[in-house]
């Protein structure tokens, strides 16, 4: 039999940890970038062993979902998974004087479908890379996938020199 887990307010602090404000503002560590001029945020999401990319357009107050295999998750499942982010991101951005209204979630359906079930993580990374340099995510497809896998492996290897 499972024991009932009792939670109280101490388990969920209402204030950010000391020093977190300076981290959010890009002041610490010293090599961080400032948030001034930031228009988009990008992050990968893994759900049920499937990866997809999220682009947050601050001006549009919208989270755009780039999913290389739209058969893995329904729109409702993605909305449920990202619901906490629609609350957390505006709260964090408010701490650094960036106002984001309630975040909408929009799934992009114009990207190509992955052909190999193990490529979703590389697709998510490439979507973020392409979007970050103002290229269309629709340009990411399976044609260069083997090359991109090798490039990513090499980049990871050269960071810490171990396979």
From TrEMBL:
Keyword Kinase applies: no
GO molecular function, one term: cysteine-type peptidase activity
Pfam families in alphabetical order: Peptidase_C48
Key word Transferase present: no
Record key words, sorted: Hydrolase, Protease, Thiol protease
Residues in Ubiquitin-like protease family profile domain copies: 1-131
InterPro entries per UniProt: Papain-like_cys_pep_sf, Peptidase_C48_C
BP term (GO), one: proteolysis
Signal peptide segment: none
PANTHER family according to UniProt: SENTRIN/SUMO-SPECIFIC PROTEASE, ULP1 PROTEASE FAMILY PROTEIN
Annotated family: Belongs to the peptidase C48 family.
Protein's UniProt name: Ubiquitin-like protease family profile domain-containing protein
Annotated source species: Forsythia ovata
């Amino acid at each position: 039999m499972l024991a009932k887990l009792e939670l109280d307010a101490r388990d969920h602090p209402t204030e950010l940890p000391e020093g977190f404000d300076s981290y959010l503002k890009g002041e610490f560590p010293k090599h961080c970038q400032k948030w001034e001029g930031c228009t988009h945020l990008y992050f990968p999401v893994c759900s049920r062993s499937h990866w997809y990319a999220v682009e947050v357009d601050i001006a549009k107050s919208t989270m755009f979902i780039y999913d290389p295999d739209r058969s893995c998750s329904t729109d409702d499942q993605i909305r449920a998974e990202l619901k906490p982010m629609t609350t957390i991101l505006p709260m964090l951005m408010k701490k650094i004087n960036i106002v984001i209204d309630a975040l909408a979630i929009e799934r992009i359906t114009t990207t190509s479908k992955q052909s190999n079930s193990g490529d979703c993580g590389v697709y998510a990374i490439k979507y973020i890379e392409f979007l970050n340099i103002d290229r269309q995510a629709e340009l990411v497809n399976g044609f260069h996938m083997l090359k991109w896998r090798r490039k990513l492996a090499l980049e990871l290897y050269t960071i810490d020199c171990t396979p």
